[in-house]
Design goal:
- The complex is a heterodimer of chains A (111) and B (113).
- Chain A has strands at 9-13, 18-23, 32-38, 45-50, 53-56, 61-64, 70-75, 84-91, 105-110.
- Chain A has 111 residues and is an all-beta fold.
- Chain A is globular, with a radius of gyration of 13 Å.
- Chain B is built from no helices and eleven strands.
- Chain B is mainly beta and 113 residues long.
- Helices cover 0% and strands 50% of the residues of chain B.
- Classes of the chains: A mainly beta (111), B mainly beta (113).
- Chain A binds chain B through residues 32, 34, 41-46, 49, 87, 91, 93-104, and chain B through 4, 31, 33, 35, 41-45, 48, 55-56, 58, 88, 90-92, 94, 99-107, 109.
Chain lengths: 111, 113
């Protein structure tokens, strides 16, 4: 199971673009990269998932370089409501049977 | 579409007692996962059920157990409660067609005194 490394915390002002990078040096060929968002006292919420290059949805973009040893979650023009913990997961092709989400990155958006 | 539901929202027990937590997955989802999130820590994988069978478990003692019913709802039982078991317990479900995206419930806050 690929181990991931993320910054523990980040601060950003409202309206700015935020990029959170996750390192996963031993990612396997079949692994996908998934990001979740968690607000206090709530369960995590799926944000975006990708395998390579770039994926974009209505919430975020995910950039994955060719070697796939890292990935960057990009949140455009953050607002106060984006203050949350963001988790990067690298999973087995069969699903997250035994995944630990880790501590994630605590993003604090400042007015 | 109704989301994952969990009950109770809060549960207060004393050390040595047993706790039972319940989870109802999204309709059509056959897999249910349980996680423990202690204060300030990440989510630790507890158990995975699929089609009524326990498929995998995390590094937790045997006093953490559970089951999945024919309607795919699930129950987590924690015996001989210890103070360190105080945490938010999250349940997630996913459809058999998508191995990655899990849908989480609001959690049960278990407090052991």
């Amino acid at each position: 199971l690929a181990k991931t490394t993320q910054p523990i915390s980040m601060d950003s002002y409202e309206g700015q673009e935020v990029n959170i990078t996750c390192s996963h040096n031993n990612i396997a060929t079949n692994d996908y990269i998934t990001w979740y968002q968690q607000f206090p006292s709530q369960g995590p919420r799926f944000i975006i998932q990708g395998y390579k290059t770039k994926v974009t949805n209505e919430v975020a973009s995910l950039f994955i370089p060719a070697d796939r040893k890292s990935s960057t979650l990009s949140l455009p023009r953050v607002s106060l409501s984006d203050t949350a913990v963001y988790y990067c997961l690298v999973g087995l092709s069969g699903g997250y049977q035994k995944v630990t989400f880790g501590i994630g990155t605590k993003l604090q958006v400042i007015p | 579409e109704a989301g994952v539901t969990q009950s109770p929202t809060h549960l207060i027990k004393t050390r040595g007692q047993q706790a039972t937590l319940r989870c109802s997955p999204i309709s059509g989802h056959t897999s249910v996962y349980w996680y423990q999130q202690a204060l300030g820590l990440g989510l630790q994988f507890l158990l995975w059920y699929d089609e009524g069978e326990e498929r995998n478990r995390g590094n937790f003692p045997p006093r953490f157990s559970g089951r999945q019913f024919p309607n795919y709802s699930s129950e987590l039982n924690v015996n001989a409660l210890e103070l360190e078991d105080s945490a938010l317990y999250l349940c997630a479900s996913r459809p058999s067609t998508d191995p990655y995206e899990q849908y989480f419930g609001p959690g049960t806050r278990l407090t052991v005194t």
